[in-house]
């Protein structure tokens, strides 16, 4: 049942408002939604009315609060006692520049100072709040990340708003002709900051457990000996509590002034760093093996630029290690990457460019020659 509360609720009319609410509820024992879209102010007398309604109907929630009214609920501790949500301002992205697009959302620049990530799932509020909490966690741990400061409605969808004054993605900087090796080194500096954080069990999802699921999924589509060994190799990767980003590429790194920041934190996980490089391989090179135009569509840079950026990133991350070691790490990452790509293509019935065949061919070549997928 939705009940509208409006105007001002204070000592002069609190009793009347409570009587009206109770009359509407009557014997109803389901969920109560108090719609505060037209509520201008609520005093302590009004708060006591809300409290008594909540005690009688434990599932009561309040929606569509203005910022001013929400702050009253927040300051008085009501947001900790019950579910209270703000009204979301409407925002149009028509004609706005698309900065990037991933599996979960599209990032637009709405003006020189602001970008908004619009989620593809219309029921994404939980995802948005989860990403905000992940961004805060990373920020506190020293990772240079932009924290969204607002949630907006974009048509039927929701978006997170970031203030990034005249920021440019690393992809845009590459298109502008900046040195790829220098940018790759800067990106590795952030990556190592992320990987320097060791968290507690369960603080973030386990990437190893997710990867075991990929291997189990593709196993029936591979020769028995390849599928069995692939699953064994992934299962034997040590469970690590290292923070990994999980979707690290040049469209998720922004330069604002002299500072580099990450803008997409919803894929944070715990795991061995080999999983990070496997996802990087997918972003820069994986799908381009069967569709050379993929990286241009996804990252907005040329394939050779993507290849150079990946190679420079690996070189700087493992600075001081010899070429054979780096080559072995890339092969480990490729095995995990092909497993994930193959699973995705099969699950989504999207094999138009021969991804499954390419992944199968490479797994059949790499897996027999590999003893472990960690370093």
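^ structure tokens above, recovered residues below v
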């Amino acid at each position: 049942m939705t009940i509208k509360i409006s105007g001002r609720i204070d000592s002069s009319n609190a009793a009347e408002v409570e009587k009206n609410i109770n009359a509407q509820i009557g014997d109803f024992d389901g969920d109560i939604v108090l719609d505060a879209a037209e509520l201008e102010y609520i005093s302590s007398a009004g708060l006591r009315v809300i409290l008594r309604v909540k005690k009688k109907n434990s599932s009561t929630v309040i929606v569509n609060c203005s910022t001013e009214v929400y702050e009253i609920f927040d300051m008085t501790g009501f947001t900790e006692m019950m579910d209270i949500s703000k009204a979301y301002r409407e925002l149009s992205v028509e004609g706005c520049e698309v900065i990037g697009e991933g599996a979960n959302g599209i990032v637009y620049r709405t003006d020189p100072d602001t970008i908004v990530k619009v989620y593809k799932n219309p029921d994404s509020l939980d995802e948005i709040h989860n990403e905000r909490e992940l961004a805060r966690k990373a920020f506190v741990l020293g990772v240079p990340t932009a924290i969204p400061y607002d949630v907006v409605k974009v048509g039927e969808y929701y978006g997170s708003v970031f203030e990034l004054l005249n920021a440019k993605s690393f992809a845009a900087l590459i298109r502008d002709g900046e040195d790829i090796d220098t940018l790759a080194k800067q990106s590795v500096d952030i990556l190592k900051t992320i990987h320097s954080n060791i968290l507690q069990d369960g603080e973030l999802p386990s990437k190893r457990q997710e990867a075991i699921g990929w291997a189990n999924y593709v196993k029936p589509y591979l020769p028995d000996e390849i599928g069995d060994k692939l699953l064994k190799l992934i299962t034997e990767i040590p469970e690590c509590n290292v923070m990994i980003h999980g979707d690290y590429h040049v469209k998720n790194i922004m330069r604002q002034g002299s500072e580099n920041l990450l803008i997409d934190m919803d894929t944070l996980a715990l795991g061995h760093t080999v999983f990070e490089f496997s996802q990087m391989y997918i972003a820069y090179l994986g799908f381009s093996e069967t569709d050379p135009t993929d990286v241009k569509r996804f990252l907005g840079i040329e394939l050779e630029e993507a290849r150079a950026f990946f190679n420079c990133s690996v070189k700087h991350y493992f600075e001081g290690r010899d070429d054979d070691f780096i080559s072995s790490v890339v092969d480990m990452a490729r095995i995990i990457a092909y497993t994930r790509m193959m699973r995705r293509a099969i699950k989504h019935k999207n094999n138009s460019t021969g991804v499954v065949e390419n992944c199968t061919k490479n797994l059949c070549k790499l897996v027999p020659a590999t003893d472990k997928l960690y370093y």
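The mean pLDDT is 94.
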